[in-house]
Amino acid sequence: MPLSSSLDRVLARISARYRDDPYQLLQMLRAVQASYSHVPPAAIDFFARHLRLPHSQVQGVVEFYAFLHEVPRGRYDIRFSDNITDQMLGSRGLMNRLCERLGVKPGVPRRDGSVTVDLTSCTGMSDQGPAAMVNGLAVTRLDATRIDEMADLVDAGIALEAWPRDWFAVRDNIRRTGPMLDLHMTPGAALKAAIARGAASTLSELSRSGLRGRGGAGYLTAHKWRFCMEAPGVQRFVVCNADEGEPGTFKDRVLLNRFSGELFEGMALAGFVVGARQGFLYLRGEYEYLLPHLEAVLERCREEGLLGSNLFGSGFDFDISIHLGAGAYICGEESALIESLEGKRGQARVRPPFPAVRGYADKPTVVNNVQTFIQAAQVAAMGSAWFSSLGTEKSRGTVLLSISGDVPKRGIYEYPFGVSIGEVLGDCGATAVQAIQIGGPSGHLIGASEFHRKIAFEDLPTTGSLMVFDWTRDVVAVVQNFARFFQHESCGFCTPCRVGTTVMRQLIDKVVEGKATTADLNEMESAGQVTRALSHCGLGQTAPNPMLDALAHFRAAFEARIHDGGGDPGFDLDAELSEARSMFGADVAKEGHHGG
Ligand code: SF4
Question: Residue 214: its pLDDT value, please?
Answer without folding.
Answer: 80
